[in-house]
Amino acid sequence: MNRIEEFPFFRTYKDKDKAIIDIKAFEKWISELDVDLLTEEDRRDREQAFEELKKGEALDLKEAMKEW
Length: 68
What we know:
Elements: E1 10-15, E2 18-21, H1 23-32, H2 40-54, H3 61-67
């Protein structure tokens, strides 16, 4: 198992259990991983949202936040 110090986004430690990382390097590292970070439920929700958007249906943000 890798230690955090070995990752390209690690910069230094802030505290015993806290690290400072380079966010841009972390985002690049994540984007290059060959893994799917969405759960099946997340994927379904995203597909539903895109379908609603295509139909011109507006998202009720207040209601969506309650359900989330």
